[in-house]
Amino acid sequence: MAVQMLLVINKSGGLIYHRSLDAESDKGLNSNDYLILASILHGSFAIASQLTPKALQLSQSAAQNIDFTVPYIPYVGMPRGRRGGQDKNRSNSSLNSSQGKLGSFKGDDFFKDAFQSWNRSGVRQLCTDQFTMYIYQTMTGLKFVTVSSQGALSASHTGGSSNMHSVHVADNFLRKIYCLYSDYVMKDPFYSLEMPIKSTLFDQKVKQMMENLA
Amino acid sequence: MFLLVNFASLENTKCTFDEISRTKISLLMAIYSFWIFDKHCNCIFDREWTLLSNSSSGTINSKQNEETAKLLYGMIYSLRSVTQKLSKEGTNNEVRSISIGKFRIHTYCTASGLWFVLLSDYKQASYSHVLQYIHSHIYVKYVTRNLLSPYDFAENKNETRGQGFRKINNRNFISTLESFLAPMILQ
Q1: In chain B, what percentage of residues exceed pLDDT 90?
Q2: What is the pTM of this model?
Q3: ipTM surpassing 0.85, yes or no?
Q4: What is the spatial distance between Cα B14 and Cα B11, in angstroms, rounded to a whole number?
Q5: CA–CA separation, A104 and A186 (whole Å)
Q6: Which of its termini does chain A have fewer beta carbons within 10 Å around, N or C?
């Protein structure tokens, strides 16, 4: 999964952060377009919750059967050296850990457990010919959106069993971005809630994480 | 007393068996509903299956589904505008599927402005071949090549822009579509 773009949408549907990895994907779109795009996504999120099929509404058992647990996928978006540092390059591991401290998070990854997805009735994935968009929603209504360059044409090769896998990878990645948000945006005394994020530290960390995944 | 306990245990096992069979059926369920929209933003066909066990249950071209059809159309329309904005210049970028909490929406858009929409569960990643088949072998065969069926489902100006009410009521079309989709309901 190569990430092209990351958007953070606040709970009222406004775009508060936008980052593209390459300038090419930004072509022809200005910041106003991105604001509109974020609100459209927010709107279709609200509509999606109204569309639950009758068969699911009628049978409680079918609705309860669906598992919203997202499995932990190791080291999504973490530097590559960190992964090797565990067994092969023992000498490098101390260097790595001092290089890339995860803010206030201990250990070599932000979390190491499966977690629950709060996005139960909204859009989780939008698959098109050219790209796939993933949306992660937090309990507080904040939405993290990422666009991966892998489209439907390449995704169709992977087949049935792994069709949830890419969603889980994206959820793991976006939850880490959420960890970064809670560290570098929420602890910023100059940040006012629901307003665009101007934090350079957050920007750096997000960029690094996106590059790690590419 | 003994009889009571026995009865209770029997009741218990019956309950669990019932539950197992119900979960089994719900696990088998694959598709929930199927919709066709025309170029005038009208829903010209809708089919929704409601009972998990019965492939002939549910509604066809129901009035109750009008609001849902509008919501569904609106959501796909706005997400299509998003993807067209984000696509590379000069290329066509169509929405294939939208995954929502418990279910997935598959779309197939033709150049003539027809949208084929299928709501399914998470089990299969892509139904595009199914929708393509429905268009090319069922819709074209029984609606397009049918002299008695209207060419355009909006007959005058008042029925365009989502104001239309005409539906596909062709018997052959409905029965062929039913028999084609029936195995997928209990896959």
Answers
A1: 35
A2: 0.82
A3: no
A4: 5
A5: 12
A6: C
